[in-house]
Amino acid sequence: MSDVLDRFDRDGYAVFREVIDRELVEEAAGHVDWLQRHHPDLRPEQLGHTLLRDDPFWLRLISDDRLLDIAETFIGPDIALFASHYISKPAYSGQPVLWHQDAAFWPLEPMRVVTLWLAVDHSEPENGCVRLVPGSHRGDIQAMRANTAVDNVLGEEIAADVDESAAVDMVLAPGDVEVHHPNIVHGSNANTSPRRRCGLTIRYIPTSTRITAEEQPFPSAFHLRGAPGVNAYQPWPIFDPARHYRFTDAEAAGE
């Protein structure tokens, strides 16, 4: 893995192919549909972390050992979840994510965190894939400014010029995972294609990183592996067929 870490240090991102099997990815796609039916007030790009604390499938997915093994490569063996978010861009109308750095938003101290972006659908330039500026993680954290001139996921953008000609497209197949640094400049275009583009962001922290948000425990703080460290955590939800998305081995969830 030393070559992966060397490239990550240089570029600020890495790509892992065929991490999650087709069956689990299909369950994730069904989960997104289920969430949209149960939360019709939310845009599909906004299926975020506050929904996670009472969702056994979401926890089953983000705690998959194949994902935790990748996270461990970057942050070590003591792992917690900070946040997770489906960004599902519907065909023809999916909103862009304007250029930003994740570290500009997050209540973490220190800023030791890694994002895994799990492709639920094929993700390509035509349907608004993630775009990254390699090496930009080595720069400073820039201020953000409001931008409501165009409908977008964050309502903000980085208050600095971005050399878009240097950006690279993260072309991913379902089950692939892209990993990126919290300081890297990234975003994605609108989806004007006839195909949905859905991905799940998963923000893993070492358990030595403190979540400094006022609400404690944080809605999506879960202990996943190793020593529990410095944070308070949510209890693991137990599957209830009357309230939760049904999935393979759902009845064992939370036991």
TrEMBL record:
A family per Pfam: PhyH
InterPro entries: Phytyl_CoA_dOase-like
Keyword Oxidoreductase (UniProt): yes
Molecular function via GO: 2-oxoglutarate-dependent dioxygenase activity; iron ion binding
Name the UniProt record assigns to this protein: Ectoine hydroxylase-related dioxygenase (Phytanoyl-CoA dioxygenase family)
Sorted UniProt keywords: Dioxygenase, Oxidoreductase
Keyword match Oxidoreductase: yes
UniProt cross-references to Gene3D superfamilies, sorted A to Z: q2cbj1_9rhob like domain (2.60.120.620)
